[in-house]
Amino acid sequence: MSLSVYPNAAAAPTGPSRPAARRWRDIALLAGLFAVVIAGLAGLAAATGWAETRDQLMRLTVAQVAILLALSLVNYLFRGARWHLFTQRLGLPTGPVQDIRHFLGGFAMSVTPGRVGELIRMRWLKRETGWSVERTAPLVLVDRASDLAAMALILALSVGLSAGGATLAIPVALLALAAAWIATRPRLLAGGVTWAYRLTGFLPRLMGRVRGAARSLAVFSTGPTLSLSILLGLIGWGAEGYAFHLLLGWMGADIGLWTAMGIFTFATLAGGLTGAPGGVGGAEAAMVALLSIEGVPLEVSIPATAVIRLTTLWFAIGIGLAVFPLAERCAARARG
């Protein structure tokens, strides 16, 4: 299994040793990131006392962990349905099972910086449909924009409806909404690319391709498509936020539904803004800090953070690693 991205399959390196080397490199990256997070949380747990942290973890039952994983699955499936909506609006000749396979398989690349590795979906689409990366690139942009819009709305609702209303979240929500709005304005994006090219004169072919991809976003800018995509995102991300609320309650730290959802959403966005692979490090630090502000002791916030990240980010990566080989085989058969 290779987790590298080659939009132009002909450009992929050849030779029997390269795939194996890339596979071990990717496995080492995943293991390294996981070890860094665990080491950081373990250090905090040691500072507060292992016994208290262990007791909190032991309070969770197998059924409760299963509920957390099920709510994460709700997120993945609803966002996968949104991906299918976008492919159909773009005119791709793909079916729902095929689109869900691409979407879930792309999670294997979630820990690449800025999640750029998820562009592997474009390679699969090229092999299975013959569409160039330039034609399918808008899918990535509109998918990210929809996530930003849904999470910004959840964050705004959380600020307004939570008991305290963390004003720190307001700028992040506004920034996410602004980024989502810009990312779905084809004329604005195309004009920005044109302005940048006229100013710098750099990379005319690349600028032309980016401008073409920006213009093709128009198919997603209709009211029904935008509304349905945001609704699917709200249900998906809301499910994981609700899982965090349940988890805190099971650990004896019920801070309220909207406060819990706001902290989860803010931490996820904050982790993404760091540009770190999967938001690792930044998301965990933000979550522990915000829970502490709400009066949640470290012996609860640390295991809660560890569990929710395992059942969301790392669960998604596990699903992606399981689906990735199937997606690769299907794409290889289509190409052959």
TrEMBL record:
Read off the lineage from the record.
Bacteria, Pseudomonadati, Pseudomonadota, Alphaproteobacteria, Rhodobacterales
Q: Does the keyword Cytoplasm apply?
A: no
Q: How does it sit in the membrane?
A: Multi-pass membrane protein
Q: Which UniProt keywords apply?
A: Cell membrane, Membrane, Transmembrane, Transmembrane helix
Q: Name one Pfam family in it.
A: LPG_synthase_TM
Q: Which InterPro entries match?
A: L-PG_synthase/AglD
UniProt name for this protein: UPF0104 family protein
Subcellular compartments: Cell membrane
NCBIfam families, per database record: flippase-like domain (TIGR00374)
Q: Which residues cross the membrane?
A: 27-51, 57-78, 153-182, 218-237, 243-266, 305-327
Is Cytoplasm among the key words of this record?
Answer: no
User: Which organism does this record belong to?
Assistant: Salibaculum griseiflavum
Which Gene Ontology cellular component terms are annotated? Answer: plasma membrane
Top-rank taxon: Bacteria
Q: Where is the signal peptide?
A: none
